[in-house]
Specification:
Radius of gyration: 18 Å
CATH superfamily of the largest domain: Response regulator
Distance between the termini: 25 Å
Largest sheet: 5 strands, parallel
Structural class: alpha/beta
CATH architecture of the largest domain: 3-Layer(aba) Sandwich
Length: 192
């Protein structure tokens, strides 16, 4: 099996992304910058190293402005308004567009209308549980990454959510830095 080079100058992000890749059975090599990445390739050059480096170089026709990058959209679904506010403030401050829903039915409606890149989904919500919403969104929006949030520390519930299609699970109170790193890693894998 080949190796995946994880390049980010933020060690927490590189570590989180490497952990996520390992969870999916991939071997990854975290590095801080392109020079260290090049050194990794020097020890065991993959076929097509030059093509990889050429593809990684910024390709902008001279004199033209680079295309404006779309900001990733995150849907925060939680019945706790304080939690919605904290997550919205954190991710908005990190450069994401954020929309919120207070229950499961509103979360499904907003997700269908806006097709977010990431959904942060509380498990215990009124009108429709997060687990039910997870099942629906995983089927209907296969490119969307879904993170489950819960005040319950049950390993069994976490395992069940991951089996149903969530890519990560966090217990409340949520470590915002770890959640941010997980979201950033997932967006990288999605190409967003």
């Amino acid at each position: 099996m080949g190796r995946i080079l994880v390049m980010d100058n933020d060690r927490a992000v590189a570590g989180a992304l490497s952990g996520l890749l390992t969870r999916y059975g991939c071997r990854s090599v975290p590095v801080a910058d392109w020079l260290n990445g090049l050194r990794v390739f020097m020890f065991k050059p993959p076929s097509g190293r030059e093509e990889f480096l050429r593809a990684a170089a910024p390709a902008s026709p001279s004199g033209s402005k680079p295309a404006e990058k779309k900001r990733p959209l995150i849907l925060v679904a939680d019945d706790d308004s304080a939690m919605r506010g904290v997550l919205k403030k954190f991710f908005s401050g990190a450069g994401y567009d954020v929309i919120t829903a207070a229950d499961g039915i509103a979360a499904e409606r907003l997700a269908r209308e806006t097709r977010p890149d990431i959904v942060l989904l509380d498990i215990y919500m009124p009108r429709r549980s997060g687990v039910e919403v997870l099942g629906t969104l995983f089927r209907e929006l296969p490119g969307t990454g879904i993170v489950m949030l819960s005040g319950n520390d049950s390993e069994e519930v976490a395992r069940g959510c991951l089996t149903l299609g969530a890519f990560d699970y966090f217990s409340k109170p949520v470590n915002l830095e770890a959640l941010g790193a997980s979201v950033k890693g997932r967006l990288f894998l999605q190409g967003s």
